[in-house]
């Protein structure tokens, strides 16, 4: 017999005052927050628990559900076996044959009793109904599933099994009302967060389907610093590319997005590539990891090998129907404020190097066949000794189909244990010969520093996408210097063409940033590097001083280079607020006046900063701590470290979605789903 104790939201609050007309004042038992309301209106209490204490809110909902199921009346029926141990407990449904419909001794019978037509459905405003609808919307967003799945018979049967009282929302309701409402909430939260941002930079990502050049999307992502030096990223907009879309139209839409989110005139830099991105990432030609995808993707190996030839034939504008006229590129439209994405340039270098040595494909294809063979022939416990527990085994890593760095790690582990694997699987025609092993070993050795740079920029790509993970551009110069040193000191016996292709690509795509004052300054202001990388510290120090002088003068005006920048990126930076309280002359006369000699020049600040020993402290944490000691350097650091070195979350979503489907085959509301997926934490945490 269940207790008849009433379930009330006020159980989670302490009443400290009770006035007339049912007015009460309470304190939250968990956080002490004071809340005023009426006893008859409990929405304030429910909202507080839902926002501030979700676990307590879930507990309240469950208690309320149990109450609704019949615990208050005590008319419960317990099914027992094995000496009276309770097995199932369900409410008795009046009018059902034998008290319970269906099989008495099975869970299916219990569910049948609850779904036999006599279970009262939730009201549309019931907290449990709203909670389940929100959970379904979250699932659709996180997995980028089509909204039409809510109409599927199997999905609805699952909901009926789990919660018979829930009334599923229709596809039309979710697509036309629920998701747009969440998108509107995310926009409000984004605008509110950006209103207090000190400095910010933008990323412009374009993704299109090469099979249909007019199909695709472009996203605008903002990277900004909060008042406590925390870096945050938010997707401002994800818009579909139309048939009539051109670079001019993209720039116009980009400007409109900036104005609508009140970031026009505040962006320091825009990270973008001058040419449209395809949905394919670089991968080792012929080395396909998943055996179930081998037949499907066998024809794509040649496509990967020849992708650069096709890319060279693509104009620098998105075709407008059959109009072949070239229009101005993004590079020209954004002007001097545009910078290349370092991660994208690094990937291009690897792609150019692999393209320069097409003889790799047959050997890599044989290594792929050997991998498929040993993962099917060798027991799983033996494979774990080679591929440990990171999931680098057959059928468990779909991203390896598109990520050359992951494929290279699999190949290296395969080579490190090839003798052991051959012994376990037995001799066969798929075994790798000595010359093939030597070639693959040289390939992994040559590309190993590129993999290290890639991992440093991207981190753990197999974990959930983290929109707030930010890699500053200060890593770019040390990576380029390390790659050039590695390539100059490496001798390739089996694949010299690969080495030459990589060297040429690095010199063409990455080496120019070694002379870019923006990258030099960012690397110098990173406390782990300073000028330890420089072979000419005096010259680089002068470059840094020039760049610091240019940007530090913008505290009371616009950037000196605004004549090269679009109008919407050239507004002045607001001056820091000054305390409105003036110091009384007589009352505070005992306090010593602040000496004017304490103010250091920009050159003095830089000299003191460089004399300190480098530290491994996280760069933004360092400048938050040192902002008082080096105010002018910190002012410039705030701007520089909003520029990301890695691709944005939306770019990775474009790639992931494009590798699974053609863009034109994805859900029609994909732009809304991507927008909510990237801003998930901003909306639902």
From TrEMBL:
<keyword id="KW-0863">Zinc-finger</keyword>
<keyword id="KW-0479">Metal-binding</keyword>
<dbReference type="InterPro" id="IPR008906">
    <property type="entry name" value="HATC_C_dom"/>
</dbReference>
<keyword id="KW-0862">Zinc</keyword>
<dbReference type="GO" id="GO:0046983">
    <property type="term" value="F:protein dimerization activity"/>
</dbReference>
<dbReference type="InterPro" id="IPR012337">
    <property type="entry name" value="RNaseH-like_sf"/>
</dbReference>
<feature type="region of interest" description="Disordered">
    <location>
        <begin position="551"/>
        <end position="580"/>
    </location>
</feature>
<feature type="domain" description="HAT C-terminal dimerisation">
    <location>
        <begin position="608"/>
        <end position="678"/>
    </location>
</feature>
<dbReference type="GO" id="GO:0005634">
    <property type="term" value="C:nucleus"/>
</dbReference>
<dbReference type="GO" id="GO:0008270">
    <property type="term" value="F:zinc ion binding"/>
</dbReference>
<dbReference type="Pfam" id="PF05699">
    <property type="entry name" value="Dimer_Tnp_hAT"/>
</dbReference>
<dbReference type="InterPro" id="IPR052035">
    <property type="entry name" value="ZnF_BED_domain_contain"/>
</dbReference>
<keyword id="KW-0539">Nucleus</keyword>
<protein>
    <recommendedName>
        <fullName>HAT C-terminal dimerisation domain-containing protein</fullName>
    </recommendedName>
</protein>
<feature type="compositionally biased region" description="Polar residues">
    <location>
        <begin position="551"/>
        <end position="564"/>
    </location>
</feature>
């Amino acid at each position: 017999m269940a207790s008849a104790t009433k379930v009330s939201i006020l159980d989670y609050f302490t009443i400290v005052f009770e006035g007339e007309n049912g007015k009460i004042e309470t304190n939250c038992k968990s956080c002490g927050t004071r809340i005023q309301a009426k006893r008859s209106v409990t929405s304030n209490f429910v909202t507080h628990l839902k926002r501030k204490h979700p676990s307590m809110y879930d507990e309240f909902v469950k208690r309320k559900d149990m109450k609704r199921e019949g615990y208050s009346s005590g008319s419960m029926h317990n099914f027992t076996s094995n000496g009276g141990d309770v097995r199932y407990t369900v409410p008795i449904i009046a009018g059902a044959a034998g008290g319970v419909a269906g099989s008495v001794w099975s869970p299916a019978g219990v569910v049948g009793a609850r779904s036999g037509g006599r279970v009262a459905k939730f009201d549309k405003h019931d907290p449990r109904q709203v909670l389940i609808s929100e959970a379904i919307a979250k699932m659709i967003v996180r997995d980028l599933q089509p909204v039409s799945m809510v109409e599927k018979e199997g999905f609805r049967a699952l909901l009926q099994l789990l919660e018979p009282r829930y009334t599923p929302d229709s596809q039309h309701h979710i697509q036309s009302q629920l998701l747009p409402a969440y998108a509107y909430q995310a926009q409000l939260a984004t605008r509110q967060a950006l209103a207090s941002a000190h400095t910010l930079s933008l990323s412009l990502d374009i993704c299109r389907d090469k099979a249909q050049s007019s199909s695709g999307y472009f996203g605008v992502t903002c990277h900004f610093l909060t008042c406590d030096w925390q870096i945050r990223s938010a997707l401002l907009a994800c818009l579909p590319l139309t048939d009539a879309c051109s670079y001019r139209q993209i720039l116009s839409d980009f400007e409109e997005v900036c104005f609508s989110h009140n970031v026009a005139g505040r962006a320091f830099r825009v990270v973008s590539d001058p040419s449209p991105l395809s949905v394919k990432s670089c991968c080792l030609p012929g080395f396909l990891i998943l055996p179930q995808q081998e037949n499907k993707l066998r024809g794509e190996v040649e496509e990967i090998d020849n992708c650069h030839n096709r890319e060279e034939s693509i104009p620098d504008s998105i075709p407008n129907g059959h109009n072949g006229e070239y229009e101005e590129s993004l590079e020209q439209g954004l002007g001097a404020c545009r910078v290349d994405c370092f991660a994208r340039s690094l990937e291009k270098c690897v792609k150019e190097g692999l393209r320069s040595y097409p003889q790799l494909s047959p050997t890599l294809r044989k290594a792929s066949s050997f991998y498929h063979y040993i993962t099917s022939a060798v027991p799983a416990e033996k494979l774990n000794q080679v591929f440990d527990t990171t999931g680098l085994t057959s059928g468990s890593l779909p991203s390896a189909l598109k990520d050359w760095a992951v494929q290279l790690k699999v190949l290296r582990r395969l080579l490190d244990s090839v003798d052991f694997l051959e012994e376990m699987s037995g001799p066969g025609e798929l075994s790798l010969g000595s010359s093939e092993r030597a070639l693959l070993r040289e390939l992994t050795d040559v590309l190993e520093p590129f993999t290290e740079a890639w991992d440093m920029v991207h981190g753990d790509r197999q974990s959930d996408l983290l929109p707030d993970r930010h890699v500053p551009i200060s890593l770019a110069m040390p990576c380029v210097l390390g790659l050039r040193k590695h390539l100059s000191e490496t001798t390739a016996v089996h694949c010299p063409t690969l080495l030459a292709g990589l060297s040429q690509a690095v010199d063409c795509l990455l080496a120019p940033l070694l002379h870019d004052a923006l990258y030099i300054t960012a690397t110098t202001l990173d406390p782990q590097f300073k000028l330890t990388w420089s072979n000419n510290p005096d010259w680089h120090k002068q470059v840094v001083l020039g760049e610091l002088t240019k940007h530090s003068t913008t505290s009371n005006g616009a950037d000196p280079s605004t004549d090269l920048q679009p109008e919407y990126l050239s507004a002045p930076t607001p001056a820091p607020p000054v305390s409105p309280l003036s110091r009384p002359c007589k009352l505070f006369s005992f306090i010593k006046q602040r000496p004017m000699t304490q103010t250091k020049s920009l050159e003095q600040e830089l000299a003191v900063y460089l004399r300190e020993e480098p530290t491994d402290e996280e760069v933004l944490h360092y400048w938050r701590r040192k902002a008082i000691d080096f105010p002018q350097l910190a002012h410039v650091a705030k701007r520089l470290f909003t520029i990301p070195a890695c691709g944005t979350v939306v770019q990775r979503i474009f790639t992931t979605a494009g590798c699974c489907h053609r863009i034109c085959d994805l859900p029609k509301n994909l732009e809304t789903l991507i927008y909510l997926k990237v801003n998930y934490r901003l909306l639902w945490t």
